[in-house]
Amino acid sequence: MDCRPGCGACCIAPSIASPLPGMPGGKPAGVPCAHLTPDYRCELFGRPERPAFCGGLRPSREMCGEDRQAALAWLAWLETTTHPAQQADQVPQKVRNSAMNSPDAGSA
After folding, report:
1. pLDDT tens per residue across span 41-77
2. Of the candidates 70, 64, 79, the residue with the CA atom closest to the CA atom of residue 31
């Protein structure tokens, strides 16, 4: 599958933790990359400055969906469910729930 012309969802929805030209602190999720052109193409495509993360994204039916909005929604969902801070927030709650339901809960 090839990239959908005029989409650019993969250059907007995900965060990029590594520095890239013009964005030394990386790119926050939901913010268009500084290298996204007005016609939603990547200025860094095929260049060594392109982050490895970007090179790892490959268009697929699952990721791209039927249209640009579906791609943005899927990538935003993926960002939320795989973000380390989101996972870190969830782990203590799971641990607390597990500890509260253990047979030893309440004994000191």
Report:
1. 999 999 998 999 898 888 899 999 999 999 999 999 9
2. 79
16, β-bridge pairs: 27
- CA 18/CA 46 separation, integer angstroms: 17
d(CA 108, CA 103): 12
Other CB atoms within a 10 A radius of the CB of residue 105 amount to: 9
Residue 49 DSSP one-character state: T
Reduced to 3 DSSP states, what percent helix, strand and coil does the chain have, rounded to the nearest 5? 40, 5, 55
- Give every CB contact of residue 25 below 8 A, 6+ residues apart in sequence: 19
Q: Specify whether the CB–CB gap between 51 and 11 falls below 8 A.
A: no
Residue 27 contacts by C-beta under 8 Å, 6 or more apart in sequence? Answer: 15, 16, 20, 33, 34
